[in-house]
Design brief:
alpha+beta; 4-stranded antiparallel β-sheet; elongated
């Protein structure tokens, strides 16, 4: 069994950027995380270090659930829909979402082959619900909250697929267009028992 990170290494992991996983620490700390498979050194200048999927899993083991609102400590959380209270949709939230989306595009550039930004990266494949919700919120779609209509993103039993619900065929189609523009593939389906229409969306690989 792999030994858990030391307290110092854990502090470096916990302080990683919540979206990109970019790390800050001493050279020795970062190299130790690379040796443990929890971080990697990017091949392009300035050769920053980033969490691997294993490093992200360790970081998230003590974080709030993905469906929870942003914590008071300032950790960004995509709004997946279904939160009980209407969210703060003011300028501060708009800036947060824009910054998170730009950070995600930068992560795609740094980790996808040939620096491609038009398709999801490994982080998104490991965080499907949050990634799809961020793409929708960044494009201006409102989440369903406090009884107000909007999108809801939910996990599914299918690998690499999420379900997206929205009230009205027009809004569902708009969500599909947004996700496809963001590098996802989406198709509309009907639940057999409830007859509710929804999107089944998954990250595009090519």
């Amino acid at each position: 069994m792999t030994r858990p990170p030391t307290a110092a290494q854990r502090r470096v992991i916990d302080a990683a950027d919540p979206v990109t996983g970019r790390l800050k620490g001493t050279g020795a700390q970062l190299e130790a995380l690379v040796k443990r498979g929890l971080a990697f050194r990017h091949s392009r200048p300035p050769h920053d270090h980033f969490l691997t999927p294993a490093g992200h899993r360790i970081r998230e083991a003590v974080e709030v659930a993905p469906e929870a609102p942003a914590a008071a400590g300032g950790v960004f959380a995509a709004r997946v829909g279904g939160e009980p209270e209407p969210p703060d949709a003011g300028p501060a939230r708009v800036r947060e979402v824009h910054s998170a989306w730009q950070g995600l595009l930068e992560l795609r550039r740094m980790t996808n082959p040939n620096g491609e930004t038009d398709r999801p990266c490994g982080w998104e494949r490991a965080h499907l619900v949050q990634a799809a919700a961020l793409a929708l919120e960044a494009a201006g779609h409102p989440p369903e909250t406090g009884g107000s209509p909007g999108y809801r993103v939910r996990a599914t039993p299918q690998p690499e697929a999420v379900a997206v619900y929205a009230q009205g065929a027009g809004e569902l189609s708009a969500c599909a267009a947004t996700l496809e523009k963001g590098g996802w593939q989406a198709g509309e389906y009907t639940e057999p028992r409830t007859r509710v229409r929804y999107l089944l969306a998954s990250p595009r690989r090519t």
